[in-house]
Amino acid sequence: MCVLRWIDRLLAWIMIWLIKIYQKTLSPDEWIFSPIFKGRICSHEPHCSEYSVQVFKRYGFIRWFPKMVERVFSCKWSDEKIYDPAYYRVVFFSWAPIGVPFLQKLQNDKRFDVVWVVTMPDAPSGRWMEVKPNIIKKTAIDLWIADIQTPNSIRLDSKKYWLQAQDLADWLKSKDADFFVVIAYWKIMPKEILDMSHFGPINVHGSILPKYRGASPLQSAFLEWEKESGITIMRMDENMDAWNMIDVLKFKLDFDWTVNDLIDAVMSKWPKFLCDTLVNYAKWLLGEVKQEESKATYCKKFEKQDGEINPFRDDLDSIYRKYRWFFMWPKIYFMLNGKRVVVENLKLDEKTFDENKSKVLIDWKTLNPCVLDIVLKPEWKKWMDWISFKSGYIR
Q1: Contact 107, 87 (CB under 8 A)
Q2: Is the peptide bond before 46 cis (omega within 30 degrees of 0)?
Q3: What are the pLDDT digits (tens) for 137-161?
């Protein structure tokens, strides 16, 4: 395997050497008639010869020689240029853990070069409130991404952080990026920054738009008993979440799925979908589709207290919706004798759910017959099953 890789790299450098000779001798930009033909023969930007040098350096010979041949034979005489780089320069904006697999995939996919990461400033966290970098910054460091910025504000009209925002804008402009990829960054991007990339700023939203615009799209799908969820990739502009859609990936939400299962699917399937969509969009294989405003719905940013239930009064239907929604944080809980009791696990029988969903979860001494398993954690105590909880707390 190592020998084949060495041969592949050797052939690539031989091709690069031959192309460099061509560029200095027979290229229309260099030979005797260059005053007439310079910049007019090749319709692509960068020119086919420079494109070939870039792909051989980045990908090797065996895999990308056919791509070079395809590019050369698709070239035509034209004064109008088609921007088609060998790989795409990306500035990545994110703050939340959900952005980690997307950043990893972009960095490891040779079709992309993550030239900059923009995330939130370091903040106090943990028991001792030590100032630490967030998960995106940590991931960028682990991936050997050198340029990481953590501005307090990116708005050029910010009075307090105007100079910092202006420096960021100047840096972004100097990067000459092809894409800005934005995933859960949670800052409003001004138009001056939105217009700084070749193919535009791209946002990844965790719902099938126009449904569930707003702060908690992944969770809201469970609260509304949706049968499917997905991801929407959009080209950003000044109108929040009403942007034109580029592509949508959908899949079924099983009855026993929680938001944790949905995020696992995000991390395993969607990063590759994003990368493929970016390439197809840049090559004009995908267009933009406007959202149907009449079908738009909105979701709110939830708080910890939203996870509170009353298992002795609330119906099973509403409890299970909340359980799936708040499974990661803050988890559903109820108060008993002044103590918080967290529902760590709740497994239901799908076949009998419709018959029992209008009943309460706990009828003081008995469980709803639909419940197959339940794990509870009283405050300051260990997890326990229903039998242990009943004997110790319900009399």
Answers
A1: no
A2: yes
A3: 999 999 999 889 888 888 777 777 7
Task: For residue range 211-254, list pLDDT tens digits in order.
Answer: 998 888 888 899 889 999 989 999 998 766 678 999 999 989 99
Q: How far apart are CA 289 and CA 291, in angstroms?
A: 7
- Apex CA 240: angle with CA 164 and CA 225, to 5°? 130
The C-alpha angle with vertex 270 and arms to 117 and 348, in degrees rounded to 5, equals: 125
Q: Are 152 and 121 in contact (CB under 8 A)?
A: yes
State the Cα–Cα distance between residues 270 and 206, nearest whole angstrom.
10
Contacts of 301 (CB under 8 A, 6+ apart): 214, 215, 216
Which residue, among 235, 223, 205, 290, has the nearest Cα to 259 in the 3D structure? 223
Nearest partner of 42 among 17, 5, 79, judged by Cα: 79
- pTM: predicted TM-score of the whole model, two decimal places: 0.84
Structure tokens at 140: 């960028």
Query: Would you state the torsion angle of the CA atoms of residues 212, 213, 216, 222, taken in this order, to the nearest 10 degrees?
Result: 0
> In the β-sheet with 339-348, what is the strand arrangement from edge to edge?
333-336, 339-348, 371-378, 384-385
The four Cα atoms 201, 204, 205, 209 give a dihedral, to 10 degrees, of 70
Q: What are phi and psi of 107, to 5 degrees?
A: -70, -35
